[in-house]
Amino acid sequence: HLGLAGPRIANFGPDGRERANGSIVHNHETWLTFTDLVLIDPTDTGWSRTVKPDDAKNFYNVKSDAQVLAKVIALYTAKNGRSSSPKYLLGESYGGFRAVKVARALQNDQGIVPAGIIALSPLLEGSLQFGATRFALGAALQLPSLAAAELERRNQFTPEALANAEHFAMTDYLTTLAGPPPAGQAADTFYRRIADLTGLPLDVVTRTRGFVHDAYIKHLRDKGVVSSYDVGFSVPDPFPESASAHNDDPVLDGFTRALGGLTAGYIRNELGFKTEMTYELLASDISRKWDWQGESMGRASATTDIRELLALNSGFRMMIAHGTSDLVTPYAVSRYVVNHLPPLGGADRVQLKLYRGGHMFYFTPGSRLAFTNDAKVFYSPAAE
What we know:
Elements: E1 8-11, E2 23-26, H1 62-79, E3 88-92, H2 94-109, E4 116-120, H3 126-129, H4 136-153, H5 159-178, H6 184-198, H7 202-207, H8 213-218, E5 225-227, E6 230-235, H9 252-270, H10 284-289, H11 303-312, E7 317-323, H12 331-339, E8 350-355, H13 367-379
Parallel strand pairs: 3-4, 4-7, 7-8
Antiparallel strand pairs: 1-2, 5-6
Helix pairs in contact: 1-2, 2-11, 4-5, 4-12
């Protein structure tokens, strides 16, 4: 709402990082110029609450969460005379996963066929996303994001340089990690290449045998502690004597706290909604209680749902947007998913768009405008 699409937007300074001095300003790039917006806070986030507090736990699972949001959408569109309007869903992070599940619930339970989804930094395949410390493919899909961050630090970022890192990740890096650990000169050459790509010390890369995901957050030379949500962003290490990072995430916790206060003030003071409830921008306690219904976050998957949406609705389209230096939802995972979809119509029905920055790349100068322009093109069939 205040980071990207709404009529007002949070301003965190020219570099997008001055969270202590954030303010609300007019959003000249609001998506209201090309689509109507209805922003929904799921149960126990924002100011959404169940009538009976004890009932809230019934909504803390994948299926009921999707079903209740589909019902909210169905009720809203019916009561506001918008049943015939094209329906596009936008979701970020878990919200990208949620948007896919809600689209299926809309189609199956409410008789509403969505026109499209924009999944922003989404979780799509947990087994690929969370396997970077154990499996060769998971590590290979993480490496390009680490390389992108190092290119940014060196002021050497170009699409060509990133493409070279992607090629290494899916060829020599993948096949070497999949086999027995290299030895001798081969090991030295291999580990030096990884150290050069990521900026990690050679001894750290060697000790981890090339599986550098966990080591990266703590051991990036003298850069302090980097954020998993934007590995190009670092802060001084508050525990330099510790071998592991156990402080708050520099991006997630910083932006969550800053945006929470700005949002509550905006809604109370500018929109006139007065309440004594606490605005829950990110409900971490619910995350710990979340029921994955027989699975886990590490095995969560939206691929089957995407295939069904594409197969059952020839007009359905999807745009997946990622920041290049996001390690929480690395873009190469989504590229892998897209590349392995069966041929279900035109190749442009599922688009992958990349932007410089991290998980919330819309706080990176230039990336929000580029993303907004791409979204406007994506939405344009709805206006035709």
